[in-house]
């Protein structure tokens, strides 16, 4: 990791399902696999991470007086009947589906956070994160942007599930980090949608990847997955008004930075790594 040489950085390997004692001022609670491939692999562990893990971190925040930020998800809206999604929308979630371990786990985590806030006075912040992409993502992550980029670089067909008309909104990782920090340092509990309102169908995303990597990259259609939301787009009015935050990097600008990182890691091309560094700093 690039932070290991920083004397202010310390890494502790720990499972949040087990209690943890630390002296901290702020807790960014991001623990949970976010890719459907990963969270469906062990659904019981996923919901334990969301429920027991969140309880443990809230307990820690209460004991040491730390401010607690929960990274929830746009998945709390399920397959939404409202578009775009605002924070007051309660969602349309299947409580017994294959995605429920994640969707309902995050909804329960939000419940726990608000109960600790109201009942125990814990300073809580809640972010609902929409699809995010960028360098250093796991190459075989299973999420759509990393899937398409890795497949196109490897000269494999890009797999589109269903008819490709389902939509998502993609924010670059640095925009998300800024939003989380503004939320943590601000005075508003939330929840806040943190996402890029730029909406793309899966076919449009595949075409942007083609433009960026290989115009001849092929698209292959597969049967759709269960409970896959048809539309997903954040209304970020609340974040704009109360946090002064909105994403700055559009997909066509952020994707090449991710592609450079993936290309270097897949093929070991250090020249591409230098290009990615120069692009990132410009």
TrEMBL record:
Q: Show the GO MF annotations.
A: NAD+ binding; UDP-glucuronate decarboxylase activity
Q: Pfam families under this entry?
A: GDP_Man_Dehyd
- What EC number is given for this enzyme? 4.1.1.35
Record keywords? Decarboxylase, Glycoprotein, Golgi apparatus, Lyase, Membrane, NAD, Signal-anchor, Transmembrane, Transmembrane helix
Q: Which Gene3D superfamilies match?
A: NAD(P)-binding Rossmann-like Domain (3.40.50.720)
Cofactor(s) it depends on = NAD(+)
The pathway that the record names for this protein is: Nucleotide-sugar biosynthesis; UDP-alpha-D-xylose biosynthesis; UDP-alpha-D-xylose from UDP-alpha-D-glucuronate: step 1/1
User: What's the domain of life for this entry?
Assistant: Eukaryota
Record's catalysed reaction(s)? UDP-alpha-D-glucuronate + H(+) = UDP-alpha-D-xylose + CO2
Give a GO cellular-component term. Golgi membrane
BP-aspect Gene Ontology terms: D-xylose metabolic process
Q: How does it sit in the membrane?
A: Single-pass type II membrane protein
Chief location category: Golgi
Enzyme class, spelled out: lyase
Which stretches make up the NAD(P)-binding domain? 23-258
Q: Where in the cell is it found?
A: Golgi apparatus membrane; Golgi apparatus, Golgi stack membrane
Q: What is the protein's known function?
A: Catalyzes the NAD-dependent decarboxylation of UDP-glucuronic acid to UDP-xylose. Necessary for the biosynthesis of the core tetrasaccharide in glycosaminoglycan biosynthesis.
Q: Which family does it belong to?
A: Belongs to the NAD(P)-dependent epimerase/dehydratase family. UDP-glucuronic acid decarboxylase subfamily.
Output this protein's name: UDP-glucuronic acid decarboxylase 1
């Amino acid at each position: 990791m690039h932070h290991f040489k920083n004397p202010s950085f310390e890494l502790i390997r720990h499972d949040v399902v087990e209690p943890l004692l630390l002296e901290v001022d702020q807790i960014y609670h991001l623990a949970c696999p976010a890719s459907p491939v990963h969270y469906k692999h062990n659904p019981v562990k996923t919901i334990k991470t969301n429920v027991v893990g969140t309880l443990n971190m809230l307990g820690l925040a209460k004991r040491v007086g730390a401010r607690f930020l929960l990274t929830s998800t746009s998945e709390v809206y399920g397959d939404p009947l409202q578009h775009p999604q605002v924070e007051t929308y309660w969602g349309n979630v299947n409580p017994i589906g294959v995605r429920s371990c994640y969707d309902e786990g995050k909804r329960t985590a939000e419940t726990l956070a608000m109960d600790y806030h109201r009942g125990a006075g814990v300073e809580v912040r809640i972010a609902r994160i929409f699809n995010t992409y960028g360098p250093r993502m796991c190459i075989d992550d299973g999420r759509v942007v990393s899937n398409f980029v890795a497949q196109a670089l490897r000269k494999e067909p890009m797999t589109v599930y269903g008819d490709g008309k389902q939509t998502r909104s993609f924010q670059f990782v640095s925009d998300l980090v800024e939003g989380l920090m503004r939320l943590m340092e601000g005075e508003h509990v939330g929840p806040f949608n943190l996402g890029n309102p730029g909406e793309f169908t899966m076919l449009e995303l595949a075409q942007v990847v083609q433009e960026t990597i290989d115009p001849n990259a092929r698209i292959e259609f597969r049967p759709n997955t269960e409970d896959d939301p048809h539309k997903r787009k954040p209304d970020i009015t609340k974040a704009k008004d109360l946090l002064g935050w909105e994403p700055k990097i559009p997909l066509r600008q952020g994707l090449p930075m991710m592609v450079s990182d993936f290309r270097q890691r897949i093929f070991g091309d250090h020249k591409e790594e230098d290009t990615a560094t120069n692009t990132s700093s410009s």
